[in-house]
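Changelog note: in this version the structure field was regenerated for every chain. One regenerated record is shown below for reference.
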Amino acid sequence: MLKLDILSFLAGDKMTKAIHKAKDNSLKVILSEPELFIDFLKDYVQNDIFNDLKPEDIEDLTERFLPLFQDNKDSDTVKRVKLKGDVPLFVIAIVEHESEVNFRSSFKMLQYITLVLTEYEKDAKKANKDSNAKEAENESKDNNDSNDSSDITKTKGFKYPPVLPIVFFDGTGNWTAETNFLYKTELYEVFEKYIPKFEYELVNLNDYSELELTGFGNALSLIMLIDKIRTADGMSLLKRLPPDYLENLKDKIPYHLYKILADVITVLLTRIKVPPHEIAEVTERLYKRRFQEMFTLIEEYDVQETRRLAREEGMTSGIEQGVKQGVKQGVKQGMKQGIEKGMEKGMEKGMKQGMKQGMKQGIEQARIVIAKKMLQRNKPTEEIMEDTGLTRKEIEKLRQQL
């Protein structure tokens, strides 16, 4: 958990990168969980062929292919899905959540598809060779090699499995990249006959309304709703979720998914700067199956921004006071040594002392502002002491001033 203390503003870029990386991993966790992956196919691809899928029909092949890409993303995934009649389907899912559209996606899909089908060929050859070896143990190895009977891929009846390429986009803005590789090729009007024409399925989270997502009524829908929130101003979305939607989730989400759901919620809420103690309250209520109460305590504010403004306010006030004191001390010293020389040295020394004192008072003022806001929200004294560094006596004095 990332701790947001009085100096958290210094974390800046490191915190942003850590959250971004964590989100990559959390999306991979979602797609790696068979039940959530099946929900993803049913809700966002919407093909009747997925209706009867079971978790045991999903095989994760991601680790087999991902290392082959130098620019691989932690959230890309490759699955082998067993359809009716034991027909295999390969699903390649690429997650894009950058603010800029990745115009290379169709070519990256072509690379993935080529690799997947090449590996499928190898597996088919090996499986057929092993089968032939059992049926023809009396035949010599040389004879097998000469007629190449084990290479089923060279037979007329051999067919390649279907591949379903999916790009999931939850970034800001519109997805403007071509979904068909054909249109990424020069002179495609002339050479259309010879160019791969596959098209990837684009699942753009921005195209789904709050009503549509709640209509899915499963654990994945809750994750997607939270994923749509970009800033603290959007927190109202969670507070207006229909009570019956949250209540129904309690009955539909198996308990073994709670840990995954809690981890992903933590990452997404951290991204929009919800304080750790409020995130902890949300996940605690999740584990206790108090779904209707999960988001009632989340407040609509940006803790980082509040603290930044408090710090600026305190520093400005402190610097002003420091400058005044510096001028006063400079004038006093200058009177003793001579008006001209005294003013010069006095101002220099006074400004240094004033800046130093101003910084100190500014930080102290920021602590006080934060403590007052927490007191107004009836936060426990121990929690305020931990977040601000103020003593119990100082906090009680502030309480009396409210």
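Spot check on this record: The radius of gyration is 31 Å. DSSP finds 16 helices and five strands in the chain.
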